[in-house]
Write a structure and sequence with these properties.
4 helices; 28% strand; four-stranded antiparallel beta sheet; 21% helix; alpha+beta
């Protein structure tokens, strides 16, 4: 009988993560001893499922920090960093193992954890990094959507995105998911106080899929 991989089986450095780094991802932070014991249990038993909402929040906080600490740092120093297990910088792809899914409520929650870990504080090398493709990896890889990172020049900036007959307004500092079940989606966008892919207004084709388009407008400054 095959043994199911746990959420944290992919990481061999959980024992090197400081509890203060885990706490940065939590709205309600337990005391240090609780965090230390919880992390120790995850190291010993990575296949255990969260039993409560608080357990799930702790699992996601540990996952975010484990991913962040395993992220490729500087592609210029080593082009082979594009081959990271979870992030291909060269192809601008976020790679999410499908065997992570049993440990989180849904794919959307899992994607936001990866976006937080890899893109929230990432220093851009060029404006092409405003667009990333989300791939669910496994026996068969599946492209499930895209992440768009608008760059606002003012905290009152607004991005308008049009997809088909629908129009969406994204304000600086916010998050949004736009459904786009087709494999490819043609979108048009225009800014008030900002740019994306180097343009204030443009039309582009992006990958869609079962989760659609994730727009992360938090703290993205030019």
């Amino acid at each position: 009988m095959s043994v199911q991989s746990g959420l944290f089986d992919s990481f061999d450095n959980l024992d090197q993560i400081a509890t203060s780094d885990i706490a940065r991802w939590l709205k309600t932070v337990p005391n240090e001893t609780v965090l230390e014991n919880y992390l120790a249990n995850k190291i010993l038993y990575p296949q255990t499922l969260p039993l409560t909402r608080a357990d799930l929040e702790l699992d996601l906080a540990i996952l975010r920090e484990a991913l962040r600490q395993n992220a490729p740092r500087n592609l210029k120093e080593s082009p082979f960093l594009g081959d990271n297990t979870f992030l291909n910088v060269t192809m601008r792809k976020i790679l999410i193992p499908s065997n992570f899914l049993p440990f989180v409520p849904n794919l959307t929650t899992l994607i936001w954890a990866f976006v937080d870990a890899f893109l929230l504080e990432r220093k851009k090398e060029d404006f092409f990094e405003d667009l990333w493709t989300i791939v669910l990896t496994g026996e068969i890889d599946e492209t499930v959507g895209s992440v768009l990172l608008p760059q606002f020049s003012d905290r009152n900036g607004v991005l308008e995105v049009r997809l088909g007959n629908q129009s969406y307004k994204v304000r600086s500092g916010s998050l949004m998911v736009i459904p786009c079940p087709a494999s490819r989606c043609q979108i048009a966008y225009k800014f008030n106080k900002g740019k994306m892919l180097g343009q204030e207004e443009s039309a582009i084709e992006v990958y869609g899929g079962r989760v659609g388009l994730f727009i992360d407008a938090r703290n993205q400054k030019e």
